[in-house]
Amino acid sequence: ARNAKSDAAPDALSVLNHVFGLPGFRGAQEEIVRHVTGGGNCLVLMPTGGGKSLCYQLPSLLRKGCGIVVSPLIALMRDQVAGLLEAGVRAAVLNSTLSYEEASAVEAQLVAGELDLLYIAPERLLTPRCLALLGRADIALFAIDEAHCVSQWGHDFRPEYIGLTVIPERFPDVPRIALTATADELTRKEIVDRLGLGGAPSFVASFDRPNIRYEIVEKQNAPAQLKAFIAERHPGDAGIVYCLSRAKVEDTAAALNKAGIPALPYHAGLDANIRARNQDRFINEDGVVIVATIAFGMGIDKPDVRFVAHLDLPKSIEAYYQETGRAGRDGKPSSAWMAYGLSDIVQQRRMIEESNGAEAFKRVSIGKLEALVGLAETADCRRTRLLGYFGETPAAAKCGNCDNCLSPPVVRDGKVVAQKLLSCAYRTGQRFGAMHLIDVLVGRMTERVTQFGHDRLSVFGIGAELNEKQWRGVIRQVVAMGHLAADSEAFGALKLTESARGVLKGETEVMLREQAAGTRVRATRTKS
Ligand code: ADP
Ligand code: ZN
């Protein structure tokens, strides 16, 4: 690195070859490096594993002064600095893990011009002491990693990122490069506003991860489905299983171990030592499955994770994409598998409604949830839908590597079936959940049916042509379409919404995908 700098005009390619040991650039890297080295600002959107780091590391070596990298991930900073030092780059880190003496030494190096790259945690950078320090140093560029954290609407908002507006204010002439792996239209706009990137180009790489096979199945008995999925498709493979609650993490890990699948729990309630040990085993041993809450995974760089399984619905498509993106970073065939059911939609909605966020925030959150439910319910290619959400239109409408492409679901006109369901909810007073509605529809004489006299209603037994499992699928889809909504204050009672009227009048189309009895997992099994 030192040589690179003392040369009259070190070119990017030779630094790439000699310092990083890489033969060539990937995708837009070269263009980005040229742009930033020339002093330009930009926004870089690249999927995880796409090679974002080089986009600021190289210009930092090619420009005069030290590149300042803002990153919220302490573990990731440490790993990157270790790798850079090994390659002969003068890199250091400033964060809360350093002692006062260690930090002072780094600060002295920076001011003396002895650093090529300095990684700083955002809350550290914002201190008056650090800003004054940066004022005295020669700075090559600012790289703001995980830039989506500035977005209040994003799924990973970090308040300390808001303060980063100070960078364009205090250092307007130093080039800024913001990088993220997840950003929808709204988040992108916020990044541009807050980091002063108006007029700067965006470099958007394709978000497609062609080696990941997407699969979303109807939740029946989630632990059994998960065991079958691992045994049939990924025996002996390393994987991550995401659950929403700590208790479910523990239960699922225990169930897998009992089935002979080595699994370790990971959640914020575990002792820090146990957590670190489980993480190390997952990274260093072969074929370990980690069962985790979403606390796990940010900044974990394990290239051979063969599957990511969701037993609960994530909050948004961004979160789903980011979590599933931890599979197959080495480019080899991998799976993103999710089991989901009506209770997931109801639960997530309740969590949003009961949170104490502002109304606008709740509305955005519900919209994000609905987009994810749309992905889970679609009968079309999952990849096309997923990429479409990020504003990308793939060349082919069908990817050939998702469950819907591999075994297209049967879709039928479900107008009459939906009308029966809505009438049933209406006639029973919109006070009951899915289970009771199904009993009434199929004409089952339960204690409750007798108690409320629902066997005397005209809707009793009008849905006998479908079985219980099929009705569950119908209800989930009708809720997902928004014609029925679960009332969180009335224990999940299903109520008609405004749009239900159009269905009852026969004015609204309702297409339903058929629930093939337990054959979907099998049908898509192709041993690769
Ligand atoms: P991101 O930050 O986008 O998740 P990284 O910068 O960590 O991705 O890069 C992911 C992996 O790809 C790393 O192992 C890196 O060495 C590798 N990589 C990046 N650029 C190239 C390239 N031009 N050629 C080969 N490998 C690359
Ligand atoms: Zn597809």
From TrEMBL:
It is an enzyme of class 5 (isomerase). Belongs to the helicase family. RecQ subfamily. One of its GO terms (biological process) is DNA repair. Keywords: ATP-binding, DNA damage, DNA recombination, DNA repair, DNA-binding, Helicase, Hydrolase, Isomerase, Metal-binding, Nucleotide-binding, Zinc. Residues 225-372 form the Helicase C-terminal domain. Residues 33-201 form the Helicase ATP-binding domain. Its cofactor is Zn(2+); Mg(2+). It comes from the Bacteria. Its EC number is 5.6.2.4. One of its GO terms (molecular function) is DNA binding. One of its GO terms (cellular component) is cytoplasm. The chain holds residues 9 to 536 of 627 of the full protein. The keyword Protease does not apply. This is DNA helicase RecQ. It catalyses: Couples ATP hydrolysis with the unwinding of duplex DNA by translocating in the 3'-5' direction. The keyword Nucleotide-binding applies.
